[in-house]
Amino acid sequence: MSFETLNLNPQIERAIKEVGYTEATPIQAEAIPAILDGKDLLAAAQTGTGKTAAFTLPMLQKLSLKKSSGKRYVRALVLTPTRELAAQVHQSVRTYGKYLKLKSAEIYGGVNIQPQTRTLRNGVDILVATPGRLLDHVNQGHIDLSKVEFLVLDEADRMLDMGFIHDIKKIISDLPHFKQSLLFSATFSDEIKRLSKSILQDPVMIKVAADNTTADRIKQTVHPVDKSKKADLLSYLIGKNNWQQVLVFTRTKHGADKLSKRLAQDGLPSTSIHGNKTQAARMKALKAFKDGRVRVLVATDVAARGIDIDKLGQVVNFDLPEVAEDYVHRIGRTGRAGNAGEAYSLVCIDEKHLLHRIEKLTNRTIEKVMIDGFHPDPSIKSEPVKQRRSQNRRRSFSNRGNQSQNGRSSREGRNFSRRANA
Hints:
This protein has 422 residues and is an alpha/beta fold. It has helices at 10-18, 26-36, 51-64, 83-96, 113-122, 131-139, 156-161, 165-173, 190-199, 230-241, 253-265, 279-290, 301-304, 324-331, 352-362, 388-402, 408-418, and strands at residues 41-44, 76-79, 104-107, 126-129, 150-153, 180-185, 204-207, 218-224, 246-249, 270-273, 296-299, 314-317, 341-347, 367-368. The protein folds into two domains: 3-207, Rossmann fold (3-Layer(aba) Sandwich), CATH 3.40.50; 218-368, Rossmann fold, CATH 3.40.50.300. The strands form two sheets. It has a seven-stranded parallel beta sheet with strand order 3-4-2-5-6-1-7, sandwiched between helices. The protein is elongated and about 70 Å long. Residues 1-29 form the DEAD-box RNA helicase Q domain.
């Protein structure tokens, strides 16, 4: 489907052409007409499918038809699980809406609240926010959500995963009853279906791929290896294959820092991002990676949400994730927008049960390839990784239900460290 057939505002079409887009992706072709018709939407779409434009373009279209008069109120609210994703979505809003007379803003925790307060008091039409910091502003009277016409929950599965369910419900209680609501998730889990029933009215359901499957265009490979030799194998693979831009996932913050330093010692320019680093440090590291000044970016799951890198060739799971769905999110960083991609997992004997869960979830057996010189020692006994995240998640749900509303953005920051030591 050509964007021209959608009859969008000429100013929006102009912005689309400037970024070089002509044909809508499958999620855009299905979602945009439904949203323009005023329907609520429940969409299963992984990263790299064009889902941000799928809700941004029709949202801008409908807002542009009604001019603001007098004071500006938030008319469209987009909730995201992380700061990085909020920044990415807001950039899309600015890109596609650059010729429209609409004001937008992004707010999230981990940064000074005062500049955000000034921006909100001046009035915005479109607000992209993380739940905790948004509630800080609501509780302090900095923002009025009574005029919201559009609500978008982006990566709703991740927000539930991070324990934001109580925040989301509190925010929704402050919104008008009559509004258009859009919910995007990588998968249609039972929790997502329950949440959608409480938010959406007779929604259009869209699936751009089967539940919990990974893209066929991503070549997936497992390299069995002893835990003690993982770093050596990673350096070997990067050097032998001459990978110039590699995103590597670790299970913990400490592991990310340790691996990044080790790779640098091996002559591979590397940096890391995780929840303990400031927002400024994380954005600096990501920019260095995108600009090609570092060859390897080592990240934890939470910190990597919202990373959008065109034509990223390789993703490596240095540690397998404790929750199988995270594997889908991780490898979705490559093979984006129709490009080919490769995902490699370095799996030790302790992680075999995690690999089994991933293969069951994705309904495929991932090819195992032994590398000469790195064959696992058969005498090593398995000590399976304990799944800490589900325990942390239960604590998160319980704690957030009992906490007062004040200081939520600081807790939002702590959620990063609480979640599986990410």
